[in-house]
Amino acid sequence: MADNFIRREVTITVSGKTASLSEPIYLYPRDRYIDIFFTIKDAGFKFGSSQSYGDNASYARIKYIRKDGTKEGVVSPSILPVQEGKVKLEITDDFMTKDGVEIEPGVYLLQILLYDNDKGHGRVTIPPVEFEILAPIFKDKEGTDNEGALFSLDDIEVDE
Q1: Where are the alpha helices (DSSP H) in the chain?
Q2: How many Cα atoms within 13 Å fall on the side-chain side of residue 33?
Q3: Pairwise CA distance, residues 111 & 125, whole Å
Q4: Beta-bridge partners for 77
Q5: CA-CA distance, 58 to 86, in Å (whole number)?
Q6: Contact 41, 14 (CB under 8 A)
Q7: Distance between CA atoms of residues 160 and 155, nearest Å
Q8: What local confidence, expressed as pLDDT, does residue 51 receive?
Q9: pLDDT for position 8
């Protein structure tokens, strides 16, 4: 898929058996077509003949699950090429829905698996990081995502 116009760069820093984000990731259930590029620092593993650690894996796969374990986890359907040392997560309909059900607000764990080649023979798993799906302040009307304005003032009720 081509790059999306909305993008974000985030660094995951590994420290032993934990990892942290350079800045938090917050999304809403109907957010779509966003590319998040993860740079992984201090992974502690070399890939191939490179002398650098963790930034030269060839492929990756991304998994996520709701932190409280109430929802089944999701794994990216295919391995993703690592581009210029970055793992690209595409926030699409497939990411934000499962079996036709929209993702629920809550805290999720995201984990990246790094592979040495497209066959997936050598694999390193990075400790998970958190991201959050927030509840919107209003519901979008069905079919309005790509039709100009998402809402009008007539759609909002104000308490007086």
Answers
A1: 93-96
A2: 8
A3: 7
A4: none
A5: 10
A6: yes
A7: 16
A8: 46
A9: 95
